[in-house]
């Protein structure tokens, strides 16, 4: 059993307590040495020897010069005037990916997003030299070329070089040609991008863990493969984890329209995650008690659950938690399982209002998600004690699936 991993009620209660103590000792000792290591990084200084924040913030790559008239630039919706033949191709692209990749392919891989964070976020100051480093892990399965590579460029162009160790792309046994040699050749020209491939379809949980296993950063930052990062998205996540190593921190997930690629982010208060008794993830407004706890609009918001795709976690804390349930297949359930795990293992799950990342929600599921129910059953069995009965009551099918596990 890995630290705060799968529980088995009272039988293991003592060993869990022991694991907690040991885990915390190892974890806290290591997190201290992380900070010390990070602070040894040299600070870029200007000609007068003063710390130069602009240099510290410098991304891995600068975005090319802005062309305001380019399609979809600054997150604008794309509406094309198409011939019948072109319209047919567009429809085909939607059928294939459940995302309008005909439109996506026409938008720059380097486009900028409009400024959509709370203006107070701009005033937050970071001590770049002491922030932990991160590895961004992106698992993908049969993703379209432009959505995947816009994600990669977006990370490279919005993350400080000083803080980003690498992007790890994990191919979860895709079978599309563009993800073979063409992808390898393309990323060979990019700094800090690594690609590994699963030898069989692992599903998003084990694919992410493959990536995590080779990550060199202090913090693991997971993203889906069709994202675009807003300016300044990374620093708040890393700062919060530096301040509270057992916090798992999510950015605000802004919607990118699957059809027009309009970026629909807004600077208002984020929503938090919940779930219904069928163990379906739900969004909620921030409750009053949580609003009262916060002293500023730039403070993190605690959230019972996460949507699942986008979050940062201290690598050592992730290991202490026992990572994910590796028995989960393909898609679904792992987000609630991991959320329950965090809270029940003494951590906290939070959303940082100053970290915004856009995500393309597809028109409908682009691949079979038939394992989602079995994954939810695993989450209920491990973490919900007697409340699992409420779940089985609301989801009678799940009881049958339970028998097959
Ligand atoms: C949401 C999450 C997603 C995951 C899922 C529940 C967000 C924005 N997205 O669904 O991350 O937590 O809920 O499971 O919160 N993938 C693989 N192998 C697979 C299946 C998927 O590598 O067998 C990749 C996929 O290419 C993508 C990521 O895993 O990069 C998440 O999959 P998705 O985008 O289809 O899930 P989504 O956003 O509908
Ligand atoms: Mn997704």
From TrEMBL:
<keyword id="KW-0735">Signal-anchor</keyword>
<dbReference type="GO" id="GO:0004653">
    <property type="term" value="F:polypeptide N-acetylgalactosaminyltransferase activity"/>
</dbReference>
<keyword id="KW-0472">Membrane</keyword>
<keyword id="KW-1015">Disulfide bond</keyword>
<keyword id="KW-1133">Transmembrane helix</keyword>
<dbReference type="GO" id="GO:0046872">
    <property type="term" value="F:metal ion binding"/>
</dbReference>
<keyword id="KW-0479">Metal-binding</keyword>
<protein>
    <recommendedName>
        <fullName>Glycosyltransferase 2-like domain-containing protein</fullName>
    </recommendedName>
</protein>
<keyword id="KW-0333">Golgi apparatus</keyword>
<dbReference type="GO" id="GO:0000139">
    <property type="term" value="C:Golgi membrane"/>
</dbReference>
<keyword id="KW-0464">Manganese</keyword>
<feature type="domain" description="Glycosyltransferase 2-like">
    <location>
        <begin position="135"/>
        <end position="318"/>
    </location>
</feature>
<dbReference type="GO" id="GO:0016266">
    <property type="term" value="P:protein O-linked glycosylation via N-acetyl-galactosamine"/>
</dbReference>
<keyword id="KW-0812">Transmembrane</keyword>
<dbReference type="InterPro" id="IPR029044">
    <property type="entry name" value="Nucleotide-diphossugar_trans"/>
</dbReference>
<dbReference type="InterPro" id="IPR001173">
    <property type="entry name" value="Glyco_trans_2-like"/>
</dbReference>
<comment type="similarity">
    <text>Belongs to the glycosyltransferase 2 family. GalNAc-T subfamily.</text>
</comment>
<keyword id="KW-0328">Glycosyltransferase</keyword>
<dbReference type="Pfam" id="PF00535">
    <property type="entry name" value="Glycos_transf_2"/>
</dbReference>
<dbReference type="InterPro" id="IPR045885">
    <property type="entry name" value="GalNAc-T"/>
</dbReference>
<feature type="transmembrane region" description="Helical">
    <location>
        <begin position="12"/>
        <end position="28"/>
    </location>
</feature>
<comment type="pathway">
    <text>Protein modification; protein glycosylation.</text>
</comment>
<keyword id="KW-0808">Transferase</keyword>
<keyword id="KW-0430">Lectin</keyword>
<dbReference type="GO" id="GO:0030246">
    <property type="term" value="F:carbohydrate binding"/>
</dbReference>
């Amino acid at each position: 059993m890995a630290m705060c991993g799968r529980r088995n009620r009272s039988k293991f209660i003592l060993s869990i307590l022991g694991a907690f103590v040991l885990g915390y000792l190892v974890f806290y000792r290591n997190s201290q040495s992380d900070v010390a290591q990070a602070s040894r990084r040299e600070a870029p200084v200007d000609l007068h020897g003063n710390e130069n924040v602009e240099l510290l913030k410098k991304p891995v790559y600068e975005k090319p010069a802005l062309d305001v008239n380019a399609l979809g630039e600054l997150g604008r919706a794309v509406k094309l005037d198409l011939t019948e033949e072109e319209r047919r191709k567009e429809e085909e692209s939607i059928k294939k990916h459940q995302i309008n990749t005909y439109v996506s392919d026409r938008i720059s891989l380097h486009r900028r997003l409009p400024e959509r964070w709370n203006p107070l976020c701009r005033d937050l100051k970071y001590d770049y030299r002491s922030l932990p480093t991160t590895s961004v892990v992106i698992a993908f399965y049969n993703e379209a070329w432009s959505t995947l590579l816009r994600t990669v460029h977006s990370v490279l162009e919005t993350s400080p070089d000083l803080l980003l160790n690498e992007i790890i792309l994990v191919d979860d046994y895709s079978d599309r040609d563009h993800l073979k040699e063409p992808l390898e050749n393309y990323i060979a020209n990019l700094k800090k991008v690594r690609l590994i491939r699963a030898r069989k379809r692992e599903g998003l949980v084990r694919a992410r863990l493959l990536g995590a296993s080779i990550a060199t950063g202090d913090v693991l930052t997971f993203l889906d493969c069709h994202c675009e990062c807003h300016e300044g998205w990374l620093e708040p996540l890393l700062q919060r984890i530096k301040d509270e190593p057992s916090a798992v921190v999510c950015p605000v997930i802004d919607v990118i329209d699957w059809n027009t690629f309009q970026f629909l982010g807004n600077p208002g208060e984020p929503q938090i995650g919940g779930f219904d008794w069928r163990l379906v993830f739900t969004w909620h407004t921030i409750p009053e008690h949580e609003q009262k706890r916060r002293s500023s609009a730039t403070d993190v918001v605690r959230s019972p659950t996460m949507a699942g795709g986008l979050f940062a976690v201290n690598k050592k804390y992730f290991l202490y938690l026992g990572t994910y349930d590796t028995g989960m297949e393909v898609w679904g359930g792992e987000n609630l399982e991991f959320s329950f795990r965090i809270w029940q293992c003494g951590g906290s799950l939070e959303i940082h209002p100053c970290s915004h990342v856009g995500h393309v929600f597809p028109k409908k599921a682009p691949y079979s998600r038939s394992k989602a129910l079995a994954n939810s059953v695993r989450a209920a069995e491990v973490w919900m004690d007697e409340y699992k009965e409420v779940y089985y009551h609301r989801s009678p099918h799940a009881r049958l699936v339970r028998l097959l596990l």
